[in-house]
Amino acid sequence: KFFGSNGSLLDEVVVGRSGSFAYARRVGKPEVFQLTDNITFQIAPRLNSWRSAHIVAIPRNQIERIDVGYVLNDYSISWSGTDWVFSDSENDFSIEADNSQLLKVLRSIESMDSIHYYDFQFDEYADKLANPQLTLRITKFDGAQIHLEFGHIEETNFVVMKNGNQNHLYLSDAETVDTFTRAPQHYQQID
User: Fold this and answer.
1) Sign, CA torsion 43/52/108/169
2) Longest dimension (CA), the chain
3) Tens digits of residue pLDDT in 41-82
4) Which residues are within 8 A (CB) of 112 and not within 5 positions of it... i.e. 6 or more apart?
């Protein structure tokens, strides 16, 4: 089915495949057309095609606080009402609004996507999530919290559990983890 921007049905087509060719016909019409390209792989329904790739997608103006835990440090970044504040056991300072590390963190939370999904496979990854490499707790101004745990599974990949949901896990990359596992000095640099 093809829909217009206002949600109205534009057309309905049945698509099939035979070998390397694709065929299409409009619903209710007898004419069948051979397509110049085999598009069936693009429109074949797969579970992952129906899912949102977002692990989290929180606009920065909704973020009140970010708590980060990893092997070298536990720290938080919180909105004071006028600026972002970094705090850990040894530091407490305001972060410049144009600090590149702060902007990376906020962009990551605005659009953190999954590379792949692991449904009903928690037992396979339980040991990795028992001692996560990274934990994030994102608190929104409305009081809602999102808790993410990142377990290292391969050289550059991490399995992610969101809000303790063991049934639906996500796959993330090392770049996402690296974004949050930075020393306090990165939040003090002026770019």
Assistant:
1) negative
2) 75
3) 666 666 666 677 899 999 999 999 999 999 999 999 999 999
4) 54, 55, 56, 57, 172, 176
